[in-house]
Amino acid sequence: MTRPITAGVDGTEESLAALDWAGREAVRRGLPLRVLHAWRYTESLAIADRSTQHGWVSEGVAQAVRAVAGRHPELAVGVDVVEGEPVHTLARAAAQAEMLVLGSRGYGPVIGFLLGSVGQQVIAGAGRPVVLVRAGDRAAAEAAGRDVVVGQHGDPEDSAATLRFAFETAAARGATVRAVRAWTLPPVFAYSPGSLRLLDDAGGPEQFERQALAEALRPWRERFPEVPVAEHIEMGSAGQVLLSLAGRAQLTVVGRRAHRGAVGSRIGSVAHGVLHHADCPVAVVPHD
């Protein structure tokens, strides 16, 4: 089954930028585009019944669709205007999509469809990649030779899904993957004799991290031999290192595991920090 790229739109500048991004990506990957709007009937608008409000919403979505279809006449575009609760609507859409693309407002919570913790619930619960696009995003950044930056951590299987998404995206764009592994010195008491031996055999902590990154990248280099790869090893927190590179990236890709607590799902600190502060589009990819 061919999965579409789904873009959530609500008429905001951010969501229209997300729609533009999704349209370009769908063309590059040869996939259909699905445009989705979730709405709720507003009883306080006494002058408009449900049918009238639906008509207003549908016309607004149609205008956005006509614009993206005009830029990409070869693109197959489907439209869904759904009356329902946004989180559930987006979660269902994400499950059926190659990726879900949403708008976000800079240096703050994800908005548009999403308000406050709702955005984190969608991202934390989605089983497919979710891409967040800011209002100022333009196609020029994708054509300026910028890299697709991706964070790698742990063993190869820990970031396999994240690396796969980064390599697939770079291959579709003719871009370089800049793979980032950040590391810190753990407390000396955390070292066991076995781990100290591994570090010594590897030539020290930094060389150990370099070898770990190379091992994680090996299967993806083999699968995508046409994609140039730059390896970036840096001492520091993963969030800070990724953000230091995001300003020169056309896309930053991070992985996530959902953490569930008393107040609902939340994403990890690295994904959270990059989402709130990166000035390029950010893809959040769930671990397999």
UniProtKB/TrEMBL annotation:
<dbReference type="InterPro" id="IPR006015">
    <property type="entry name" value="Universal_stress_UspA"/>
</dbReference>
<feature type="domain" description="UspA">
    <location>
        <begin position="149"/>
        <end position="286"/>
    </location>
</feature>
<dbReference type="InterPro" id="IPR006016">
    <property type="entry name" value="UspA"/>
</dbReference>
<protein>
    <submittedName>
        <fullName>Universal stress protein</fullName>
    </submittedName>
</protein>
<feature type="domain" description="UspA">
    <location>
        <begin position="1"/>
        <end position="134"/>
    </location>
</feature>
<comment type="similarity">
    <text>Belongs to the universal stress protein A family.</text>
</comment>
<dbReference type="Pfam" id="PF00582">
    <property type="entry name" value="Usp"/>
</dbReference>
<dbReference type="InterPro" id="IPR014729">
    <property type="entry name" value="Rossmann-like_a/b/a_fold"/>
</dbReference>
